[in-house]
Each structure stands twice: as C-alpha cells, then as structure tokens.
Design brief:
The complex is a heterodimer of chains A (231) and B (560). With 231 residues, chain A is of the alpha/beta class. Chain A has two domains: 115 residues, Response regulator (Rossmann fold); 104 residues, LytTr DNA-binding domain (OB fold (Dihydrolipoamide Acetyltransferase, E2P)), CATH 2.40.50.1020. Chain A is 29% helix and 35% strand. Chain A is built from seven helices and 17 strands. Chain B starts with a helix and ends with a strand. The chains are: A alpha/beta (231), B alpha+beta (560). At the A-B interface, helix 1 and strand 4 of A face helix 10, helix 12, helix 13 and strand 12 of B.
Chain lengths: 231, 560
C-alpha cells in the first residue's frame, strides 16, 4: 500500500499518519506527508500511489484543482476536510469517501474499507476526470455509454462517439460509478439503459447490442446475474 | 398618494384656476393727450384738446402738466354701487372726473418745496352722478419732479369701488400665503442645513425659497405700503435682484443634481449673461425680468434634458414640470406664469430633495446592515469550520496523545474565545487588547501547526485604538499563507508609527510564502479589514499588502 497525505496542519497530518500506520500495519509500503499544493501535484505526477488522503484547504487555497488532478489518476482519493458542505461536490468529482474533521480512527478505517467494497453506494459520481493533452477535463458521467478495461487503463466511450483514456482501472471505476452501470464482462462496464438487446451467438456466446450499434460481449457468469436481474 | 401624482394634480389645478379668471370689460379707455402748463379749465370735459401732444418726453423742474383721457362706460352702473378708479401714475397729481376734483395724491407743482407725499398706486371713488353709461373725461394735473421722463398713466382700472379694493386685498393675501409657504420652507430647510452642513442642496433650496418669499412680498406690499413714486426704482431693483438670485440658483441646483461636463464654465457664462441683462437697460425692468426668467428656463431645460438623457433619477419628473411651467407661460400672463412657474419648479426641486433624502436614508440603513454584518463576521471567525474543525481535530489528538498539553491547548482556546466575547460589540478596541488576541491566537496555532511562532512589537502606544480583529485577520492570513523558515519558525512584527499626517501600523511576516502567485487581492480577510477601516475612518485610510524578500508586509495607514 502506497499512501500520500496532503495536509498543511502538522498535528492533524501526524494524526492521520499514526492512524494509517495502525490500520495498515505491515502492508504499508510507503507513507508520505506533503503540506503544499504544488509539491503534492508534483509528487502525484511522478510516483505510483494507491491512495491519496487530501485536505481541500491548503494554505488558504481552494483544493479543487488538486482534487480534479487527483481523481484523474489511477489511485483512489479520500478527502479529509473541515468543510462538510464540500462533501457532495467531492463525491461528484469521484472521490472514494469524504471524512469530515474532527475524525477518529474508526471513521478513517471505514473510509479505507471502501477500497475493498465492489460498488460505492453513497452519492453519485457526476464527473470523470480525464487527462487530455494539456489539462484535465471533467467529463459528465451521463455522457458515458460504456467503459472498456485495457490493462491498467480504461477506455471510456462517450455519447458523441469520442473515446477517452482513463488512468483508473475498471475495478476502481466500478466502485465509483453508481448502479446504473453494470459489469457485464470482465473487460466491460456498461450503462444498463444503453443496452438495446441481448443476443445469443453460436458457441453459446452472449452479446449485448447497444443503442449506438456497438456490440459488447457478456461474460458467461455475468449473463446469469443479468438475466436474473432483468428477466 | 405619491409625491409624483400629487405634483401632477397640483399643476393641473393651478392651470385651470389661471385660465378661468377673465370677464367682460365695463369701460373703454381712449388715448391720453398731454400739455405742459396749468389751467383749471383743462379739467373740463368740453375743452378742445385737439392740439395737445400724444406724448410728453420730458417735463423739467417739476413743472405742472395736464393729461386728458376720454373714458367710455360701456354698461349701466348698478344702482347703490359706486365706481372707483385705480391708477398707477408717476408723479404727484390731482384727479378730475368730468371737471370735478375727485382726489388728490401729493402736491403737484410743489414737490420740491413740500417733499415727497402721496403714493404710486391710488384708488379714488367716482361720484355716482358722474358715472352714467357713456363718455367721461379723466383729467390729471400732475408734476414729475423725480422722474421727469416718465409722464403718462401706467395702469388705469375702473370697477366698482369696493370690488377694486376687495380684489386687491384678496389677491394680496393669497400671494402672501404663497410667500409664507416659501418662508416656512426656507426656514425648515435652513435648519436642516444647519444640522447637516454637508447637504448644500438643502441650503440652496432654502435660499431659493427665501428669495421667492422676498420677491413676492416686495411685489405685493404695494397694496398696503404707500410707496412714493420716487422710491419705485429702488423697489424694482430689489425685485430684480431677488429674481437674479432665484434664476441663478435654480439652474445651479439642477446642475448639482444632474451633473454635466463643463459645469463650472457653463455656470459662469450663465451668470455673466444674467448680470449683463441685469445691468443693461436699467430702467426696462419688465424686459429684464422676462429675459432673465426665459434664460433660466432655457438653461435649466438644457441641464434637465441632459439629466434625462443620462437617465438620472427624477430628471423626467423635473422635465415635465419645466414643460408645464412653459405651458403656463404661453397660456397666461407673465405675472401669473412667473409665480405659478416658480412654484412648480420649486416643487420639482423639493421632489429631488425628497429623492436625495431617500437615498441618504437608504445609505444610512445600508451602513447599519453593514455594521451588523461586520459584527457577525467577527463572531463567525471562531466558529467557521476551517478554524473550529481543524482546532478540534488537533485538540482531539493532543487529548489522546498528551492530555496535559491538551489541557493547556483548551486553556488557550478559552482565552481566545474570551477575547472575542469582549470585543464582539465594539467598533474600536485598544491596541493592547488586539495584540493580546493575536498572541493567544498564535498559541493555538502553535498547538495545531507545531511551528515556533514569535511575536514582536515596536513603538506601540497603548492608548491607541483600532477596529477589532483587523490585526488578527492579518495574522491569520500570515499563518495560512506561510511556510516556516529552515528552523521551523515564523516571526511576526508589528510596528507603530505616527506623525502629524497619519498613523501607520506595519505588520511584517518573516516566513516562506506558500503561494506567491495565487494570493488573491481581495480574500474575505482583506475585505473584512477594508470594511472595518471604512466603517471607522470613511475614506481616510490606506491598506498596502505586498510580498517582501523575507515574507509579507501589510501597512495600514490612517490619515488624520
């Protein structure tokens, strides 16, 4: 487990650090603490991480730039902030959890545990942060038709026919996207409302035809689930 | 009823009133003829005056001259009522009606000897037996010692004797009511001005009202004060002088309400034009009056049209009253339109004043709201989530990890709350109290951030006062936006300086500045400070906030 803590209050940072160590014990590979925005951005770009714990108010600056950047990466982000009113926005940006200050070890552990749950059930994610050439673009989730896993990355297929690459794995995106998406195959996450019909091909292969004409395979085991839920 | 509709109603009523005052004539006046000399026979109605002059240009040395005017009564006199004749004639004279002496005004021919006697406006009764329908003769035996070039009858009016007198009294009393209203308004607005010396408009309005009152009283006092014809010019000069003041002040007032480019040069030019009109043609008083009033109307009209074009509040209403006053001028006589017009224009000025007072009241209410808002903002400082939640999180940690230190932390926190409680309702607090507040805040932040904060002060005068929590806000900004130096310290220094011109507080932060590029010009903190400074010092302050080699510098200057 590689974790980064971004927090400008030294005492609080130490608290998070201590609790994280206690929770993860030996499984913790690295734990870094950074207290400025620019350093954090730098660090994120140049290191592989599993989790970032982020304070949204660093040295009097709005941390949403950092948040936008963070959510476009492969790791999950948990926001720890004094401003509870920012929670909904943070969830819409696609953070795994929002821990309001003051917090105790239980609450932190609860947040960490979300990494292991398949689908997050709280507030819907409304945007996916996607890294384009120069900047990070927030794509509204409602424009997403389906997502294809491509190794550590994913390909996001949009309603306007465009395709975007995302750094997060299919598993992580599945955790963030609400129940309107269904993992119909180990490499595909599809918006259910976009499926036009399900076809059975030779060799008992199952295929889903989408409204835009795309055909996506359905995993054999998944088929049963879908059938049970849909028919 | 709103002021606007009230004004309109008033204007319409006055218009109707003015147009309804006309009646059919009861007599016809023929041409007056003159002759220098003195013969008692010239009073007789059957004297042949064919060789008499139509005009007398000049009658030197107070010589006696005669004038004869044929007058025709057009209708039969009501029985039991007497006719009277009202005259405005320069000079001292005797009045003969059909050869009979019916009245005497002064001592014609003996003015130099006996001194001024009589009055410019006089009314005489016409004996009943000489008032039948038909031709009659008015003969005046006059001498003009003081204005030898003013021979002639300026005003001649014949009506029932009691009506003549009563009409005069009625008109005069109405005009005095009118004048009285302006006198009261003048005093009222003068007192308003005295209580608020900044409100020049109220002073201008007060002076205008007073001048109109003076003008009206002077004009109509002739009905009860016996003005001798020799002082008539002085009276006219006084009247035109008052009018000069009025016709200058009205556009001046409008120019203040509806500002326009080249205001001062235009006003100066306008004043010069007025003075030229006033001085030139010294004896053509009527011409001067009409010219000045028309000039005023045209100039005001220009200003107000500009105001309407610029969409200044109230300009359209004023424009309407100006147009209405012009309507009155075109429809009625000059005298009626002068008073009605002035009344209307003054009402529109009053309307503007009311608007102005409303604006001032709103501004005052706004300042009250602003003060309340600042008070709330001060209160909020301690409960805003960034401060409170971060403090509580750290506190939780201290309590869990080092309970004794945690207790000290709580003490520091209690102290800061205590300070805030003491200052929350104040607009100004002693500098020492503000410094104490800053020091406790530093203590709290030391527990939270685990940075060595130090505080230094130079030249502080304990008796000085400042608005609450402004240094505290600067300190907060300094803590938030700074990173500690190599030795994990951040130093703050407050320097007080004063000279005859201003007092200044320099607040220095010695640290690494975390975000040079993005520190916003007007964060909520600086906004609070600026609002507080404005509340206490209006515009007599300055705030400079800039980075230095060693950190950050804030300078608050308060001008005396």
């Amino acid at each position: 487990m590689k974790i980064l803590i971004v927090e400008d209050e030294s005492r609080i940072a130490k608290r998070i650090e201590r609790m994280t160590r206690e929770i993860y014990g030996d499984t913790l590979q690295s734990l870094t603490h950074i207290n400025t925005l620019n350093e954090a951005l730098n660090f994120i770009d140049n290191n592989t991480l599993d989790l970032v714990l982020l304070d949204l108010n660093l040295n009097g600056e709005d941390g949403f730039d950092l948040l936008t950047s963070a959510v476009s990466h492969s790791f999950h982000t948990i926001v720890i902030s004094a401003y509870k009113d920012q929670a909904i926005t943070a969830f819409e940006y696609g953070v795994l959890d929002f821990v309001p200050k003051p917090f105790n070890q239980n609450r932190l552990e609860q947040a960490f545990n979300r990494m292991n749950v398949r689908v997050r059930t709280t507030t819907q994610t409304k945007y996916l942060g996607v890294k384009t050439r120069q900047r990070i673009q927030l794509i509204p989730v409602e424009e997403v038709i389906y997502i294809k896993g491509a190794g550590a990355y994913t390909e996001i297929f949009l309603t306007d026919g465009k395709k975007e690459l995302h750094d997060k794995s299919l598993e992580k995106l599945e955790q963030l996207l609400s129940s309107s998406f269904e993992r119909i195959h180990k490499s595909y996450l599809v918006r259910i409302s976009e499926i036009k019909e399900i076809k059975v091909a030779s060799g008992s292969k199952y295929l889903a035809e989408l409204k835009n004409g795309a055909i996506i395979p359905i995993g054999r085991t998944k088929y049963k689930d879908i059938k049970a839920r849909w028919f | 009823m709103s002021l606007r509709s009230f004004l309109s109603l008033l204007a319409i009523c006055s218009l109707i009133l003015m147009t309804s005052c006309s009646q059919s004539p009861i007599f016809k006046e023929h041409e007056t003829v003159f002759r220098v000399g003195d013969q008692q026979e010239w009073a007789s109605s059957n004297w042949n005056d064919d060789d008499w002059q139509k005009r007398l240009k000049f009658v030197p040395d107070g010589q006696v001259f005669w004038s004869r005017t044929n007058i025709e009564f057009l209708i039969e006199r009501e029985s039991l009522r007497e006719y009277g004749i009202m005259l405005q004639v320069y000079g001292e004279y005797e009045v003969f009606w059909d050869g009979v002496l019916i009245g005497k005004n002064g001592n014609p021919g003996q003015e130099e000897l006996l001194g001024p006697e009589g009055k410019l406006w006089a009314t005489f009764s016409i004996p009943s037996h000489l008032a039948a329908k038909g031709e009659h003769l008015l003969a005046l035996r006059t001498s003009l010692y003081h204005f030898p070039d003013h021979a002639g009858i300026d005003v001649l009016k014949i009506d029932y004797y009691d009506d003549l007198l009563a009409d005069t009294v009625i008109k005069s009393s109405y005009m005095h009511l009118y004048a009285g209203a302006f006198l009261i308004a003048s005093f009222y607005f003068l007192f308003l001005y005295i209580s608020n010396k900044k409100a020049y408009s109220t002073l201008i309005f007060s002076v205008c009202c007073f001048l109109i009152c003076a003008l009206t009283v002077t004009v109509f006092s002739k009905d009860y004060l016996p003005f001798h014809y020799s002082i008539h010019v002085i009276r006219l000069q006084f009247i035109n002088g008052s009018l000069l003041g009025i016709v200058f002040l009205i556009p001046y007032y409008f120019s203040k309400q509806f500002p326009f480019p080249w205001r001062k040069p235009s006003l100066t030019l306008y004043l010069i034009i007025l003075i030229v009109i006033f001085i030139l043609n010294q004896h053509a008083f009527n011409f001067n009056t009409v010219s000045m009033v028309l000039c005023m109307w045209i100039f005001s009209f220009g200003i107000v049209v500009h105001g309407v074009y610029k969409k200044v509040k109230g300009a359209r209403m004023v424009l309407m009253t100006l147009l209405l006053s012009m309507g009155v001028f075109l429809l009625t006589s000059f005298v009626i339109s002068l008073y009605a017009g002035l009344g209307l224009i003054l009402l529109s000025m009053l309307y503007l004043l009311a608007l102005q007072m409303k604006t001032a009241r709103l501004a005052y209410e706004d300042s009250l709201v602003q003060s309340t808002r600042l008070k709330l903002e001060l209160l909020k400082k301690n409960i805003q989530p960034h401060f409170l939640m971060n403090t509580l999180t750290s506190l939780m940690d201290w309590v869990e990890e080092a309970p004794k230190k945690g207790a000290l932390f709580i003490e520091a926190l209690a102290k800061e709350f205590d300070h805030f409680n003491q200052i929350e309702n104040q607009k100004m607090i002693p500098i020492t109290q503000e410094i104490a507040l800053c020091k406790t805040h530093l203590k709290i932040m030391e527990y939270r951030k685990e940075i060595d904060y130090s505080w230094e002060e130079v030249g502080i005068e304990p008796e000085q006062k400042i608005p609450p929590a402004i240094l505290h806000t600067l300190l907060e900004n300094g803590i938030t936006h700074s990173l500690p130096l190599e030795d994990n310290s951040i130093r703050f220094k407050l320097i007080f300086d004063s000279n005859t011109e201003c007092k200044s507080y320099t607040f220095l932060t010695f640290a690494k500045i975390a975000n040079h590029t993005t520190s916003k010009e007007d964060g909520t903190g600086l906004k609070y400070i600026k609002a507080r400074l404005t509340e206490s010092y209006q515009s007599k302050w300055d705030l400079i906030s800039e980075p230095t080699d060693q950190g950050w510098k804030n300078v608050i200057k308060i001008y005396s």
